[in-house]
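Model it.
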Amino acid sequence: VGPGTGDIQPYHGTGSNYGFAAGGNLPGGTARIEKIDFSSDGDSTSHGDLFEDSSEGASAVTTTHGYHMGGYQGPGVSANYHKFAFANNTTGTDVNNLTGAKNSMAGHYSTSDGFVSGGHTIRSAIDKFNFASGANATSHGDLTAAGYAGAGSQSPTHGYNSNHGGNTTGIEKFAFASNVTATNVGTTAVNHSYTSCSSDGTNCFIMGRNNAGPTPSSIEKFPFASESSVSYHGDLHTSSTNHAGMSATTHGYIAGGGDTQVDHINKFAYASNTSGTDVGNLVSNRKGLRGTQY
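Modeled.
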């Protein structure tokens, strides 16, 4: 069955054109969106603004728009989800509401729906919202344990939340098609927190870690098919946490992050576990930003 034929929807989790790094906690927070050209790398360029300031929220992707959900907004926490167009750099638009105010959660997406799991404020809940209708999010079950700051990823049928809870090793998955409670499917070799995941469609690559342990720049790979077979996949060029993660077709990208806020753009190859390379810089230093791609 080929992409887009019958009942099979093409997987849209990787981008062949651009990555987008949005939001982050500059002093007072920011709505800035920056675009990274996957074909040429180099420094980012401006791509307008999110609907609202956002830091440490979550992100999701359709073939035409990037979505940002929740996150810190000034001194408070947002319950909104909003979107921006990949094709032009106009300001993003508000769509609707999550089930509650959330931050530091993981984002996931199928071809029809966006999901968020965990978070600081409602730590075990999973929310679901439909891209086409733009209706308020609804409850979609729970994680097996409360947690925040996990790395979100997805196969065509399931969402994965890795290392939620603050420096943990667990990996959980939940089905997009039903709202039963998530299941534990594996563990990473080291504790991770405030990391992100890049994916080639068949594997998740968890990048960086929160604490200043022996491998703060490590990349770990787990295949969606076998799940428990987690393996070391080299290191990022620069140690990073709380950054924007983006998925190109052949490489994973991170932008920004760090305890002191950096402007680095790094990439690594999915096909080999050699160390990543530095390929450019953001317009400004910031962390707490989130990534999308198309």
